[in-house]
Design goal:
Length: about 80
């Protein structure tokens, strides 16, 4: 854990607590590590997904495919007149 750690309290039922402790013992890991892992997985699964614009890289022109004409369209760019 390279990030800072903040202590918090989580209330579990007796059954949940026993299951957590049992899993931690089986995996030879601290229960707190399992809780952190579960929170990270949950947050990743439920975080809003960033969407790219639908038009990214897409264009329609009346003069045909711009990509096919790119070299012609860019000819002379960057040259001093």
């Amino acid at each position: 854990m390279s990030e800072g750690v903040i202590k918090t309290t989580v209330y579990l039922s007796d059954t949940e607590y026993r299951r957590l402790k049992s899993l931690a013992e089986q995996q030879d890991r601290p229960a707190a590590e399992l809780v952190r892992e579960a929170v990270a997985e949950y947050a990743a699964r439920h975080a809003p997904k960033r969407r790219l614009p639908r038009s990214l890289g897409a264009a329609r022109t009346k003069r045909g495919n711009v990509a096919a004409r790119a070299e012609t369209l860019l000819r002379g760019m960057g040259r001093k007149k």
